[in-house]
UniProtKB/TrEMBL annotation:
This is histidine kinase. It comes from Aureitalea marina. PANTHER family: HYBRID SIGNAL TRANSDUCTION HISTIDINE KINASE C, TWO-COMPONENT HISTIDINE KINASE. SMART domains: HATPase_c, HisKA. SUPFAM superfamilies: ATPase domain of HSP90 chaperone/DNA topoisomerase II/histidine kinase, Homodimeric domain of signal transducing histidine kinase. CDD domains: HATPase, HisKA. It comes from the Bacteria. Its EC number is 2.7.13.3. Residues 28-240 form the Histidine kinase domain. PROSITE patterns: HIS_KIN. GO terms for molecular function: phosphorelay sensor kinase activity. Pfam families: HATPase_c (PF02518), HisKA (PF00512). Transmembrane segments: none annotated.
Length: 240
C-alpha cells in the first residue's frame, strides 16, 4: 500500500514537472514570436501610409526590416523542427572535410559584432584543422554553446581549438558564476532552462545544448561539461 502511494506521488510529481516544462515552452515561444510578428505588422502599416518622393526609399527600408524578421521567425521554426527530427532519428549528415579553425574564427567574430559588452577570444594551435563534419549542423551546435555562454556567462568568453594524438579538442569557457550540482546534472536535458528570475529575461527554448549534444554525438564526438568554476564545455572529435 505504501509503495503504491509512493509510486503514485512520483507519477504526479513527474506529470506536474512535464506540465510546467510545456507551459514554459509555450510561453517562451509565444513571447519570442510576438516581437517579429509585431514588427512586421508595424512595417506593413507604415508602407501603406507612405506617399510622396521618399516613398520608394522608405518602402525599401521597411520591406528589408520585414524580411529580416521573417528570417528570424523561420530560424525559430527550423530550430524546433530540427529538434523533432533528432528525436525521430531523421537527421542525415552531409559531411565534408572542413577547416574547423576557419569555422570557429568566423563564429567568434560574428558573435563579437553583436555582443559589444563581452570580451570574446579565440585561440588555435594551428591555422588549419580539417575534420569531416556537416558544416550546417556542426556550426549550429557550436553556436548554441557560444550563445549559452553569452546568455549565462560573464563578460569574458574563451574559445580554443587544438588536437592531440587521440582527438580534435574544442573548449568553450566563460567567466560567469558557474553552475550548481543540480543544473550541472540537467544542463543537457531537452527543454531544461536555468532559472534566472523572469524567464523572459533570457531568451530561448531550452533545446540549444540538447541539440548540440545530440549533433556532436551524431558526428561521433563527445560533448561534456568538464568544469563549473569557470563553466567549461569540451568537445572531443576522435581521429578516424
Amino acid at each position: 500500500m505504501i509503495a503504491s502511494l509512493l509510486y503514485l506521488l512520483a507519477v504526479i510529481r513527474r506529470q506536474k514537472a512535464l506540465a510546467e516544462i510545456k507551459n514554459d515552452l509555450i510561453s517562451n515561444i509565444t513571447h519570442e514570436f510576438k516581437t517579429p510578428i509585431a514588427t512586421i505588422g508595424v512595417a506593413l502599416e507604415a508602407i501603406e501610409s507612405f506617399s510622396g518622393e521618399e516613398q520608394n526609399q522608405r518602402t525599401h527600408k521597411y520591406v528589408q526590416m520585414s524580411t529580416e524578421q521573417l528570417e528570424r521567425l523561420n530560424g525559430m521554426v527550423e530550430k524546433l523542427l530540427d529538434t523533432a527530427s533528432l528525436d525521430r532519428g531523421e537527421v542525415i549528415l552531409n559531411t565534408e572535410p572542413t577547416n574547423l579553425v576557419a569555422m570557429l574564427d568566423r563564429l567568434i567574430h560574428s558573435e563579437a559584432m553583436v555582443q559589444s559588452g563581452k570580451q570574446l577570444n579565440f585561440e588555435s594551435e594551428t591555422e588549419e584543422i580539417l575534420y569531416p563534419v556537416d558544416p550546417f549542423h556542426f556550426e549550429n551546435a557550436i553556436n548554441n554553446i557560444l550563445d549559452n555562454a553569452v546568455k549565462y556567462g560573464g563578460d569574458k568568453i574563451d574559445l580554443h581549438i587544438g588536437r592531440n594524438t587521440e582527438a580534435v579538442v574544442i573548449r568553450i569557457q566563460d567567466s560567469g558564476n558557474g553552475l550548481s550540482g543540480e543544473h550541472r546534472k540537467r544542463i543537457f536535458e531537452k527543454f531544461y532552462r536555468i532559472p534566472a528570475g523572469n524567464t523572459h529575461d533570457v531568451k530561448g527554448y531550452g533545446i540549444g545544448l540538447y541539440y548540440s549534444l545530440s549533433m556532436i554525438e551524431k558526428h561521433g564526438g563527445q560533448l561534456q561539461l568538464i568544469s563549473t568554476e569557470p563553466t567549461t564545455f569540451e568537445i572531443r572529435l576522435p581521429h578516424e
